[in-house]
TrEMBL record:
This is diguanylate cyclase. GO terms for molecular function: diguanylate cyclase activity. It comes from Colwellia hornerae. GO terms for biological process: cell adhesion involved in single-species biofilm formation; negative regulation of bacterial-type flagellum-dependent cell motility; phosphorelay signal transduction system. It is an enzyme of class 2 (transferase).
Amino acid sequence: MKTVEQIILIVDDDKANRKMLKELLQEQAKIIFAKNGKQAKELAKKHLPDLILLDVVMPDISGFEVIDTLKNNDKTMNISVIFITGLANDDDEERGFNLGGCDYIYKPFKPNIVIARVMMHLELIRQRKMLDEIAHIDALTGVNNRRKMDLVLKNEVAAIKYKHSNLLVAILDIDYFKQYNDGYGHGAGDVALRQVGQALREIFVRPRDFVARYGGEEFVIVLPDCDKASATIMLSNIVQAIQDKKIKHQYSSVSPQLTVSVGAVVVQSSPSVAVADIMKKADDLLYQAKNDGRNQYCL
Ligand code: GH3
Ligand code: MG
Ligand code: MG
Ligand code: MG
């Protein structure tokens, strides 16, 4: 797996400390700086660094207050924080860990120990990210899995509750896939599922467009900021794109190629929208698309 450059935010009111820490760590990661607590909060939110080296005693906001703010914000709560401070006593050290710090280093620090501890934490962070990615990817098709879908739907639906915006949620189901497996074998069925996943990944490339495998031969698509007119275009593109893959399906009753049916809802902004209702509606419309002859969408 390709290693991505990690980012460390160094927070210290003392310029000489910032400079020394940068010199020690610039080989391990990209370094950014904050010289007070206020700036630390802003830069943490803006850059989402992997790790923060956080001074405690600063003229404006203390490092303890900074970490408290970061741990209480969904966006920044998972950033690892190492305190690096002159408060060299057990009570402050315990407080640092209780507030969510992952390490506590006394000043004056020993350069080789700082490097060793930071490298160990960077490795742990790298591993955690990798596990997090694996936990959210469907192993067969490479698209997102059901677990990730639940998270994304929850967030996207929450986001449109009080904002004037639309959201397209679609459930896509392969037509006569049981016959495909029966005719060509389960292995070929797996290959076809992968091809459908790949086709969907190629269509949806905007950063917030989302594709997941929902269950066996069903996929879910979530497109933020999508009104009814764009939805119509998108949905006919999907149905067409799968047909254009020309995956032979001689056992299908609708087409000599593999096709899909789609049920979709454009969700309007409203305080009462709920994920379960949206999925139920999309599923009913999928059922209708099947009944109307398959190889089509129903909106
Ligand atoms: P319809 O057009 O009404 O959707 O018919 P269908 O045959 O696609 O629907 P049904 O729900 O009866 O069959 C779904 C099939 O999908 C059955 C199952 O064997 C197959 N399937 C589910 N998951 C996998 C998988 O991971 N690999 C393979 N090869 N097949 C799968
Ligand atoms: Mg200080
Ligand atoms: Mg199905
Ligand atoms: Mg099916």
